[in-house]
Amino acid sequence: MRVTGKILTVCAVWAIGAATLAAAQGTDQAKIADYLNSLPTVKPPEYNEATRLALAANPLGCEDHPHASMRFSSDYLWKRQDKPQLAEDYEHHRAFYGCLDWHSGVNSMWMMIALIKKDPTIAVAPGIKNVLESHLQKSNVDGEMDFFTHLHGVGADFEKPYGYAWLLKLYGEMKSWDDPDGKRAAAALEPMATWFAKAFGEYLRSLNYPVRLGLHPNTALDMGFVLDYTANTHDTVLESTIRDTAKRLFGNDKHCPTSSEPVFADFASPCLAEAALMGRVLSPDAYAKWLDDFLPPVYSEEFALYGKDIDAVHGNNRDTTGTDEEGLPNAHLIGLNFQRAADLEWIAKGLPASDPRVPAYRRLAEINAKQGYDKIGQAGYLGTHWLATYALMYENLLEEGSAKK
Length: 405
What we know:
It is a single chain. The protein is mostly helical. The chain folds into two domains: 45-207, no CATH class; 251-405. It contains 16 helices and two strands. A two-stranded antiparallel ribbon has the order 1-2. Mean pLDDT is 88; it is low at 6-26 and 317-324.
């Protein structure tokens, strides 16, 4: 009788606890529903041929324009003599010399490949293939490899890790493109991809702590780009390194300080970038539990900033390189809208389909995308060379369906 009494007591306690949890979850779901109803229903511009052509104009307009001499302390393109001199015959010994800086040359080329893969008959297809033909010959890639493999000292970290991540993302896009020109370009770029994949893996294994800035070296952001590469190339070694590193660096994180965002010149949300990455490396159920501890509830004041407009105009006229663009909005803060939108989509895709937060995250993604499109033409050249790339990443994510686990 004593044992039976204990069992009944345990069962009663369990039943009370379960009922309390169910009531709390029901209250939470009601709050989420109320919050979703409070959000405006917006629609970004229709993603049609006209939109694709408008986005394509940006990389096509800059890929063949050499970086300005003040952009780098390295001698990638400019030789430091009495006055800067362009490297001799650079068009045949460099691949990514356009679009303001090296990583922008890479991500602009990714954008063109991503566009033509989805829409092979796009009106600018011949122009895209001409760029691919002129920039990715064996001599161009050999010149790139010679430059990167001979870096030393402070210059050894040139474009690491952000540029490395984009080079791999570009290669993955080309490698999965069933097109003769794409196959040729992928074969030409393969030595760089192999070297960069090894170097990126070594970089991740060397990290004791992640970089959480809302800028280029953000660890979670860059790892997400490389996961796109591993998905297209089936590089299981680097994929495993990314998953292991993500769990090691972020697995125990709690209570991300959303109230500290955004920071001037951010183009990524540290909290959302990390949450998006973890949604790709954890199972849906495990991810839902991790997210409960990491991000505040969607209906909370701490989360409300992700639905508010980002003021990209007031308070600053200078980009992160020190170039004055007086009177123009800060391009990074415009790009932040597109990165938020993509991250919110990844978060929604990582959760179980029945999770009540999913519709709220997707509504917030649409709100941010709409805000980005509303401002995309206002940033001048400091925005046109890369904002369209980030817009396309969001559009492609919408088309891809559920993220692969």
